[in-house]
Structures are given as structure tokens and as C-alpha cells.
Amino acid sequence: MYPTHCWYVAATGAEVTDVPLGRRALGQGLALYRTPAGRVVALEDRDAHAPYPLSLGHLDGELIVSAYSGFAYDPDGRCVRVPTQPEVPYGAGVRAFPVVEQDGLVWVWFAGAGLAGLRHPPRTPWLADDAWSTFGDEWTTGAGALLLHENFADITHVAVVDPLIAPPALSAGPVPGLDVEVSETSVAFTRDYPPARLAAWHAPLIDAKEDELFRQREQGRFVSPALWVDSWDVTSDRRPEPYTFRFTHAVTPVGATTTRHIWRVSRNFAAGDEVSAQLTPLFREYYRRVRDILETMQRVLDEDGPRPEVRVAADAAAIQVRKIVGRMVADETTVLQERR
């Protein structure tokens, strides 16, 4: 249902502390914790002695100790202490997952550990850059990961779903076509709009007049099955670089029809927590509406099954995303079959 040979975001860096955190991703339970040295560890969330989550245990230095059996595991997943006997049973341990923490996100590799070094998690440096102001939220959506990606790939729905937040350029008439670029594992697109006004909430952020027109550009990128990034650039003669909103979506399948969604909204203008506090409710309400819509779509698919859908020009990027994910899953399936 989803590729495994790529990095996925299991949590934000702020969520992982010296208190074990239980998470589920790609059908796998994870116990995440931070060692005294600050390293993030991801272990299989199941005691080797009994079907009990390690994430319900506690830390003893670098070790995580099961709250049921008392078995203690090191950051590599090896059981190093058993309370009832001096010897540790041969081979006792749990799976350890490769982890990279960067830009405020904790990335985990779910395929064979030996393959992790061949690929690196995508970077999102603006999330940790003081030149950008960022806010956001995270939650679980009861819909498959592909439904989320397809929604991000076509923002023309925003004008229908939430006219208040939508840029007026989206509803000014037929939207311009997409300039789509496709690689083996990614999709990128650009769409330039004729000069248009800004939304009522957007204009004051750059001191725009009510009837002032701005050149606007939409850019989106399916970076990997785990990450979608898009931008809305507003160009003005006031300064050389555009006023940019950048939207970051970390998409992690929990299971076939459940997805962990971490969303962030960043901007390179109107800096400060006060502006972020004003914008957060607006975007949180919008993304909650999107979540409700996607969960309704998933329910319809579960009840009625998939059917051929009418496609329009705005679906160009979404169609390519589905093709790439399908090809990645098929390639991994072929490799597994050949190994058997």
C-alpha cells in the first residue's frame, strides 16, 4: 500500500524526550526516546518477553526498561539485563530502526537497516531557519496517505472548501495550466497567475492596498511518499525577493487507511510570534476541514470501493504522484519476490 524504501517522519523533535513515546507507522509500533546525550532512539515497541509495549516503560540512563518484565534494552535493541537471572537469554532483543533528526523532525527508516545509508532524508531547512517564521500542528487523519498527497497536488479545491482562506487568484476565472516536471521518484509543478488581489487576511501582512494587484506563483513538490512541500509566492516591486508562504506536509502512513499528518506554515515576511498567533486559527480550521473531507472520501472508498473518476487539467500532478507511488510499491514487491 505504501513504499518502505524511504524515510518517514515518526515525530517532531520536540515530542521525543526522556519519557518513551509510543507511535505507530507503516503498521509498525515504535518506542521513541532521547538518551541523556540527546540522541533519538527508535525501537520496536514490543517487549521481547511478552506482548507489552516498551513505550510504557522508563529510561535507566541509555536503557529502556519494560514496565512488565523489567527487561532492559540498549539503543541498539539488545537486551542487556534481565531482573530474574544473571544471564541474558541468547539473542534476546528487539528491532532497532535507523534514525535521523534534522530540521526539527525525526526521520525513521523502516526497510532493511543496511539500505538506510544509501539514501538521506529530505531537508526542510526553513523549518529551523530564523529567517522564516513557522507555525503548525499535527494529528492523525483517518484516510490513506495517497489521498492526502493528491489533495496537496491540487489547491484549486481551496476556493470551494474555504473561500475565506483561498487566494482570489483561484476564483478569478479558469486557472492557468500547470508546468509539471516528473522524475523517477518526484513530481514538481509551477503555475503562474495573472496579477490579482490578495485575500483579506493576507493583504495586511505586506501593507497592501485593498485593490492592489500582485503577480502570484504557486509551486508544489511531491518530494517523496513522506513529504509534500508547496509555496505561494507574491511578487512586488517593493523588494527583490517574493513574499513567500511555504507549506510543509510530513505524511506518514500509520496503516492502509490512517495517516499521521504534520503540517507547518512558514513565511519569509511579517516575522514574529504575534502574526503567527493570528494566522494559526485560520489555517488550523482549514486543515481540519481538509481532514474531515479526506476521512469522508476514505469512508466512501471503504463502503463503495474505487471507481473511475472524471479528471481535469488541474489533476496533472496528482496523477503523476499516484503513478510514482504505484511504481515504487511494485518495484519493492518484485525485489521481495526475487529474494524468495
From TrEMBL:
UniProt keyword annotations, A-Z: 2Fe-2S, Dioxygenase, Iron, Iron-sulfur, Metal-binding, Oxidoreductase
Listed SUPFAM superfamilies: Bet v1-like, ISP domain
Domain of life: Bacteria
Rieske domain ranges (all copies): 7-108
GO terms assigned for molecular function: dioxygenase activity
Pfam families, sorted: Rieske, VanA_C
InterPro entries linked to this entry: Cholesterol_7-desaturase (IPR050584), Rieske_2Fe-2S (IPR017941), Rieske_2Fe-2S_sf (IPR036922), VanA_C_cat (IPR044043)
Protein name: Aromatic ring-hydroxylating dioxygenase subunit alpha
Organism: Paractinoplanes bogorensis
